[in-house]
Amino acid sequence: MHASGIGKALLSRYEDARLDAMFRSRTFERFTDKTVTSLAQLRDELAATRERGYAFDDEERTTGMRCVAATILNAYGEAVAGLSISGPTHRLPDSDIDRIGQIVCRGAHEVSRSLGAA
Predict the structure, then answer these.
(1) What is the reported pLDDT for 25?
(2) Which candidate, 60, 82, 81, 80, places its Cα nearest to that of 69?
(3) For residues 35 and 4, is the Cβ–Cβ distance under 8 A?
(4) Is residue 26 scored above 90 in pLDDT?
(5) Reduced to 3 states, what is the DSSP secondary structure of residue 82?
């Protein structure tokens, strides 16, 4: 979950105590040079995710691949799924990430509304 857009999108909805319990006895596997490898780094990523409204995996799981993701909420405001766009870095350049993030957020919001989320 620490190295994927969907994973970080879902984790961004967790409270600190839940994150602490989840990662207390786990190591952060490094997949690439860009992988988040500590709880402190993950917390920073999750704060950025909350601020932007979408998560971003920048070659953290697979070199050359990116993912932009947002959470889908149920009628109780709980994250139950995610919506994402993934692709190679040359098709998801830095200049397009925010635009794609806004599209993903709109789509996730529409699905969430259909599930009864406010």
Answers:
(1) 84
(2) 82
(3) no
(4) no
(5) strand
Task: Write out the two tokens for 37.
Answer: 């490898």
pLDDT tens per residue, range 64-97:
999 999 999 999 999 999 999 999 999 999 999 9
DSSP symbols for 33-65: TT---SHHHHHHHHHHHHHHSSEEEESSSSTTE
CATH superfamily of 5-114: GAF domain (3.30.450.40)
Per-domain residue ranges of the chain:
5-114
Q: What are phi and psi of 21, to 5 degrees?
A: -65, -40
Q: Collapsing DSSP states into helix, strand and coil, what is residue 6?
A: helix
Beta bridge partners of 12: none
Burial class from Cβ neighbours inside 10 Å (0-12, 13-18, 19+) for residue 1 reads middle
List, for residues 89-115, the tens digit of each pLDDT value. 999 999 999 999 999 999 999 999 999
Side by side, the strands of the sheet bearing 79-88 are 55-58, 65-73, 79-88
CA–CA separation, 26 and 28 (whole Å): 7
Q: And the tokens for 75?
A: 């009628």
Q: Please give the share of the chain, as a percent, with pLDDT higher than 90.
A: 92
